[in-house]
Amino acid sequence: MLPFVMSLSTAFATTLTGDFVSIDYNSGGTWNDATLGTGFRLLIDDVWVDFSYAGVAYQTWAIAYEVEGEGVDAWANSALGNQVIVRSITDVSANGQLILEAVYQTGELTVTKLEWFNAGGRAVGVSFAITNNSANNVDDLRVLYAVDPDPDATAYADYNTLNDVLDADGDGVDDWAQAPGSTTGAGLGFLACDAESATLGFWSDWSTSTNADPLLTDPAGAASDSAMGLRWTADDALAPGASIAFRLVVGAGISPEGALESALELGATACCDGDGDGTDALACGGTDCDDANPGINAAATDIPYDGIDQDCTGADVYDVDGDGESAIAAGGRDCDDNDARAFTAAAEVWYDGIDQNCDGNDDDQDLDGYVLAYDCDDEDPSIHDDCPELDTDSNDPIRADGGCGCSAGSRGAGAAGVAFVLALVSRRRRVAWHRRDSAPA
């Protein structure tokens, strides 16, 4: 199963330019604008030096996964076009940061890629946020981010780079790949924010530049004309409707040490926001309690009763109206969680149309089974409207106001109730006799 194929066009292009870094994007949201003939450039001694345009692969990102056992491969490649649907490419730069947002669709997945750098910086943050739009799990999800670094090609016709994979923070896990030019030493490097889930390395087989799974190797500083890549692999299946995100940092410099330094400087903050939602993870002193889900952060609005703490308060919202009692939908007893006046401990205000104490009753105070409209005295369960022989004569003196007469004892009021009923019957008879005797002959 392959997604819709959209070919690359140069109709759209944009350039983000800071004090030291300038990136020319094409309509696929990847580096290298064929019209300009430029890609990723670094300002060195007042000269803009292109680090990425000369090579065949230019820049690419590729994605691979499985749905119900069927594999999917898709890519966006500067040289070979796109096998993803490009939904939008937008310059969202703000507050001294140059930011490009690219939104893609593969079929099951929506992929949002952000690339950003500070106006005065020499490193680029990259984030991928991936959402599963299907009704099935997405398994074995991998994303490759890669570029063909050629920092010495323009000035020195030297396409070789001194490629190496290193453990920059000394924790025993490789987290940095660098490709300095073999003539000048200037070049790029990739810093993995989540090194445990990332594989870094190089490859030279351009036929696999549209594949998320090229064999990535560590040349250990040997010179070669190779592409540099970082492949991130999801630890678990991506459930329907779920999102996941990862980040890396691209460092640039006039030396390998300079490239790493710039990457680490930006990575100190960029790697703390792994899902790209603008909120740092708890581990970095931030307030994001789930840094793999862009829909969860301290600024988010919680969705009540779904069991997910979207706003990172420590619990899902079970009491929307703040009356101290959880909603019935959340396993509580609050019958109206949008009204703070309604909860089981509230005092009932009778006949106002609101069931304040959540017992299902607002208009039968004496619990005799008759609501106020049919009860002359709703504080006495022995008195209520019970008139099987309704007298339709409006002049009948035993008619109650607007009702058919209140009677007592119809619901087990005892001897007094029976006597009251008999008295009513006797009175009806006397009235009838009086009407008969006074009738004209």
Report on this structure.
The protein is mostly beta strands and 441 residues long. The model is unreliable at 1-11, 387-392, 394-404 and 408-441 (pLDDT under 50). It has helices spanning 153-156, 256-270, 415-437; strands at residues 14-17, 21-25, 40-44, 47-50, 59-67, 70-77, 81-82, 85-91, 97-105, 109-118, 123-132, 138-147, 161-162, 164-166, 176-180, 187-192, 198-203, 223-224, 227-233, 243-253, 383-385, 406-408. The protein folds into two domains: 14-271, Beta-galactosidase, Chain A, domain 5; 382-437, no CATH class. The longest helix is centred in the last third of the chain and has 23 residues, at 415-437. The protein is elongated and about 105 Å long. The strands form five sheets. The protein has an eight-stranded antiparallel β-sheet with strand order 8-9-10-11-20-16-15-14. A six-stranded antiparallel β-sheet has the order 7-6-5-12-19-17, with no helix packed on it.
